[in-house]
Amino acid sequence: MSRTITVTIKGEVDDDRYADLANAIWLVAYNTGLEFTVTPDQEAEPSRLNEAWRNYGEVSW
After folding, report:
1. What domain of life does the native source organism fall in (predicted)?
2. What is the pTM of this model?
């Protein structure tokens, strides 16, 4: 059986914050151990989402 969760962002959100949110949702879902997909909206650029993910590895904590 498949289940769906929909997240709707109200108001304006720039591409960087959108990518951060989409990647955070992916990370939380990944850590559940369940099979899942995260489907960005039609305005999102997958390459930008991937770029944001790569940049997280460059952050100095």
Report:
1. Bacteria
2. 0.75
Which token pair is 22?
């989409």
Query: Quick check: 43 and 61 in contact, CB under 8 A?
Result: no
What single letter denotes the amino acid at residue 40?
A: P
Tell me the one-letter amino acid at 7. V
The CA R_g of the chain, rounded to the nearest whole Å, is 13
d(CA 27, CA 25): 5
Return the residue matching tokens 């940049």: 55
pLDDT tens over the chain, length 61 residues: 899 999 999 999 998 999 989 888 988 999 999 999 888 889 988 888 888 888 887 766 5
